[in-house]
Amino acid sequence: MIVRHITALLKGLSITLKEFFSRKSTQQYPEEKRQPYAAYRGIHYFRPGENGEERCVACGLCAAVCPNHCIFIEAAESEDELKHPERQYAEIYSIMLERCLFCGYCEEACPKQAIALSRRYDMAVNTRNQMIYTKDKLLAEGLELDEESVGGEIKKTGRRSLWGA
Amino acid sequence: MIEQLKTFITGELGIAIGIGLLKSLIVVVGALLLVAYATLAERKIWSWFQSRIGPNRVGPWGLLQPIADGIKFLMKEDIIPRNADKPLYILAPFLAMLPALLIFAVIPFGELRLGGYVLDLQIVEVNIGVLYIFALSSLGVYGIVLGGWASNNKYSLLGGLRAASQMISYELVLGLSIIGVVMTTGTLSLRGIVDWQQQRYILLLPQFLGFVCFLIAMVAELNRGPFDLPEAETELTGGYHTEYSSMKFAMFFMGEYAAMIGGSAIISCLFLGGGKAPFGWQLSFVPGPAWLFLKMMAFIFFFMWIKATFPRVRYDQLMSFGWKFLLPLALFNVLLTGVLISAGVL
Amino acid sequence: MKLTIESKKVEIEPGATILQAAEKAGVYVPTLCHDKRLKAYGSCRMCLVEVAGSRKLLTACSTPAADGMVVSVNTERLNEIRRRLLELLLVHHPLDCPVCDASGACRLQDMTFEYGVTSGDFSDKRKDIPVVTNSPMIERNMGRCIFCGKCVRVCDEVKGVRAIGYSGRGFEGSVGTAFGVPMDCEFCGNCVASCPVGALTSKPFKNKARPFFLSEETSVCSYCGTGCRLKLDYSDPEQHSFLQGKLWRTRPDDQDELTAGSFCGRGAFGYEYVHSADRLRSPYVKRGRKQEQSDWPRALDAAADGLREVASRYGSAAVAGIISSQATNEESYLLSKLMRVGLGSGMICAPAGLGELAWREAAFEILAGLPTAAAGEITAADLLLTVESDLSESHPVLGIRVLQAARYGGARLIYASARETKLSHYAASDLRIKPGSGAVLMAYLGRCLLEKVKRRGGLKGLLGLGEFTSSVRKLTAGKTARATGISVGELTDLADQLDAAKKPLLLISHLAHETQKGSDYARAAANLAYLLARLKGCDPPVVFASEFSNSRGVLDMGGDRSLYPGGNLEEVEKIWDVKVPGATGLAAAELLEKIEAGQIKALYIAGLDPATQLLGGARWGKALRKLDFLVVQDIFATEASRAAAVVLPGVSWAEKEGSYTNFSGRVGTFKPVVKPLGLARTEWQVMMGLMERFGVAANYPDLAALRCEIEKLLPGYFSGKTRNNKPGGTLMPFVTKGLVEKPGGKYRFLMLSGNSLFQLGSYSGHSAALSERMPRPVVEMSGRDAVRLKLANDDLVEVVSRRGKLRGKLKVVEGNISGVVYVPAYVPGAAAAALLPAPDSKGRAVGCAVAVRKVR
After folding, report:
1. pLDDT (tens digit, 9 = 90+) per residue, B250-287?
2. Touching partners of A (3+ C-beta pairs < 8 Å)
3. Domain residue extents for chain A
4. CB atoms < 10 A from the CB of C808, how many?
5. In chain A, which residues have their Cβ closer than 8 Å to the Cβ of B45?
6. B37, B218, C2, C4: least surrounded by Cβ within 10 Å?
7. pLDDT at A157 over 60
8. Rounded to whole angstroms, how far apart are CA atoms C658 and C160?
9. Is A44-149 assigned to CATH 3.40.33.10?
């Protein structure tokens, strides 16, 4: 019996020893970045409109569907026909990312395909205020993101088209 | 007055004290350096066992990590809980660290040849070195028990209590398992034991049962995994050091590592012949202390290895293993050694 | 009649439609164009039902139910038809729900969802009609219109305004004004509220909030004395982070039997003052000559110390309180208790609306004995007599009831006034009488009725009969005809009509600024009401429409010196356990005189600005500066608050709990929906803080506890059981007193004043939409006078009295009696009060002579 126990212990030791010499799976994060799956839901962004207009019309569906109530919008009326063709626009649009659970409902609910979730996941910041993504930040995000972090075709057309293109 | 001082310093006693201080300095600084790097080693080795890389951001290969850690510990806020027993609370970390460092006083590290001069790295040779070590190692538990008590926290107290009972149980095994060595060599002096082995043979195989008992009991004495019940972070949120922060916590930490290094040295001396080259290799260019160091490192690696491998044992398992298995085994080893000695085999 | 709907048996009155029967049976029938206020229309066809034995499908809203009918509502065939109908509507209806204000509260959206219309077999181009934004307050997005016609019908049938109608044919059809000019109507908002989709939108609300984020709370309107129930749509940040806590809009409550789902411009667009930037946000305490921002403990201490010092130096009678008629019942009660118990002063005055001296004697009689009729009696009446009162303008929702009764209820509307107003157009007899002669007219009618009542022996128990009889003996038809300017024939005809009517009803407004009404008017009205009651054997048939939301409640709560909560001094002393100072009248006029004479040294003003709201405004402005110590509690900075030693910021009705008592004694309670602005605190809590400082027990943890105490004095007040129907009543002798200030010489016009549709009290001036609609007074003048003065519509004119002047836009009303100009009161920056003389201490109608000249 003792022999059996001792072999069991030795077996355990041998397994760990094997791992000791194995190839390490650590990724050196800021230098090597993990490429998430195409459907990964990361930081939000505003998709730029085809003619440079703002897509968001502050309909509030994203805020309504948000399970954590982390989207805050104040709608207003705009005079700028080019920037806001539908007159109504979001005067304030902010997402409290600390509360967000990245379910992606906002993206699904959006009738204008304005908001989308990118594949960016690096959101560590120094203050809580920086976790509040305002409209400017979301718009800038939308313009900056490259094909990779947007997630290719899936992101471009929206996951599911409810309202037609 | 100055003249007297001069004569004193240049006198025999003065020089002896000087050399003693120098040796202490070398040993203590060396030990603390070892402690510091043992923490890094532990993190690194664990990482490797867990298929990770481990700390590699501070300095090349993370070599400056211990310094960063040290600075961090120093900068941290030192919190004393409002209802803690303040004097004891402050005293406890010192009590945990000091005995561990004092053990280094009697360990025969061997000789260092510097040109023509020979420096004996053993700070002091006492003929009852083994007893001294046992005395100190049982003192080490006071730090833990007092820390657990003074924190006025139920987790700490439970940790302290576990430490006390664990110490008492395994102290016996520890003591009994080296009776065989003492019987064989006929001395209580560590230097004597090492010399005996250097002249004859190492005691690993003749005293194999004793070695196994000693090794297991020592892991338990050191509160290291899989016997790290006093701190058991998964159940006691840190055990005796739950409430400790900053440098006080660091002292507990250092005490533990110092004890581990000291323990490695002792077991190397007792069973592996200290600085003796293994397998009778005639490699005189490798100094004795280096061999001891290698052996110690091997043990330290072993400790880390088992901690990375085995899950923490349950408290009742720990107790029954100690009392019902190890203790009889150690006693049997005493008997066996006696029989073998009287049979003239040893 | 019995019929079966969806296998449910239901019994109904003859004449009811299938839809009404279904409602009674609890069967849901989808409708888009139906409105219970309107005649059946049957345009949307959503309510089609199958009736056993009929090959055709019938519209439930317009088909009268017949005995033994078996009706199916939810068959597969019907639902398929409804689905098709919706598909057809959605061919043209744009799918711009994301930017549509109705989204979330849209009937079409709901039904599309309900019937699962996800795609259509038809396609055509969607309407792309530009939004019509040229009208104030209301925007028309005709692309979204589904031609249910509700707005057009509401405007016509309910309001009688006909501001909008259909134009164009077929695909080009839309709802709009004649020739596309901007809307110029009453802006009652009923068309917007009735629109089932988002075709009509309210400008202050549009594109700002989404209905599905708004919480709803039933409340009472804070403006006039009608006391309409309103639904407040507000955002609760606790529930949705979409919006900040804010009151976003008001909607009429169709469950309210008083309003039947209508409201007026003030109710629809007058909520914006709640979030006005002009609101007071922090207490101020005067230090030296400057008011400095302060905090509550310091401000309350300063107020209490100041009042106490004046009371100890000059006696407690030197301290007075004056309370707004828009204060809640609870506040009025607390102020009454604070003044009487805390300061031992009986000097309390509730001036606006009812408390003016001209009204006092009659008012007490009315309140004590005369139950004023509820709104429902307007609809039930067969003769409506309104004398020098235009309820359709001062109380628009009561005006709706009057119009409905006159147009569809078979009631004869007799409208006697110096002005031509909307009611003139719908009146069976439109009598243009001389200004201020309404009292004589009513006294004469009373005299005629007296004889008839006497003949039928119905005078038993009526007090004051002898005095009244002798006082009107000489009031012959000829004399009355001369005084009123109408013919003897018309007068006798009127008396006969009153006699012949089964349910006559007298409609009387009493507004603070009505210069032509004195105590004789009030007496005549009360006398007439008592005599009518005797003649018809009913309760006195009279509607005294009180001016402000709580004109009546303030008096019920003892907000006036002569009135105690419950009216019984001993009872009050028992409940309060303290000696309460005795009563002599203190009207605003007396208060003003006492301040001017230096008898009153300290004043606590709760929620009103005497300079712009009370008669003799100019004198008030000076008088306030004479005071040693002035505390003003208000929600806006006013002339009074700028002169105050301590300013206590109050909160609007949307931020506090309270109750208003309407003209007929219905108590409407309301709850806070938004947080108080800045440091502002609810008035009742502030008053409690003051009471504590005066050592008065104010152990009211909440309003419920306070109401409990009030109900000890006024049993059943908050559950509406307090109206005591005293059968007796007292007739008062009638003496024609005439006007104090008659036109003549340089000031040759008589100025009449009253409440406009858009401006009432101080709140409307801070509601952006209302102020934009009426930024300056609209001065009405008869055609003849305009020709003589060479004035035309929209001319900027200056109206000058001996006390002040204001500028306004001229509106020529051909039918007005000449020699009269009409100026709406309460227009910010042009307060009619500043022109008017102070009330007369003998109770005469003040009158006001003015000159009008064109401004170049």
Report:
1. 888 888 888 888 889 888 888 887 777 666 666 666 67
2. B, C
3. 44-149
4. 24
5. 20
6. C2
7. no
8. 34
9. no
Q: Tens digits of per-residue pLDDT, B301-321? A: 999 898 889 888 888 888 998
Q: What is the rounded distance in angstroms from the CA atom of residue C631 to the CA atom of residue C717?
A: 30
Q: How far is A22 from chain B (nearest CA, A)?
A: 7
Percent with pLDDT over 70 in chain C = 95
Residue of C36, C6, C9 whose CA lies nearest to C20: C36
The model's pLDDT over B163-172, given as tens digits with 9 standing for 90+, comes to 888 888 888 8
CA-CA-CA-CA torsion sign (B334, B336, B339, B343): negative
Q: Which residues of B touch A19 (CB under 8 A)?
A: 48-51
Kindly tell me if the per-residue pLDDT of C61 is higher than 90.
yes
Q: What is the pLDDT of residues B111-156, one digit of tens each?
A: 777 667 776 777 778 888 888 888 888 888 888 888 888 888 888 8
Query: Model pTM greater than 0.80?
Result: no
Nearest residue of A to residue C96, measured between CA atoms: A86
pLDDT digits (tens, 9 = 90+) for C792-811: 999 999 999 999 899 999 99
A164 contact residues in C (CB cutoff 8 A): none
Q: How many angstroms separate the CA of residue A165 from the nearest CA in chain C?
A: 13
Cβ–Cβ gap A26/B52 under 8 Å? yes
Question: Where exactly are the structural domains of chain C?
Answer: 2-74, 126-275, 304-352+551-713, 356-545, 749-854
List phi, psi (to 5°) of B182: -65, -40
Tokens 């993101």 -> residue: A145
Peptide bond into C541 cis (omega under 30): no
What ipTM score was computed for the predicted complex, to two decimals? 0.77
Q: What CATH topology corresponds to C304-352+551-713?
A: Rossmann fold (3.40.50)
What mean pLDDT is predicted for residues B231-244? 80
Tell me the one-letter amino acid at C218: T
Nearest to C212 among A64, A77, A86 (CB): A64
List pLDDT tens digits, range C365-383.
554 555 577 788 898 999 9
- C435 Ramachandran zone, left/alpha/beta (phi>0; psi -120 to 50): beta
CB neighbour class for C299 (10 Å; exposed up to 12, middle 13-18, buried from 19): buried
Q: Which of residues 81-100 of A touch C (CB under 8 A)?
A: 86-88, 96
CATH architecture of C749-854: Beta Barrel (2.40)
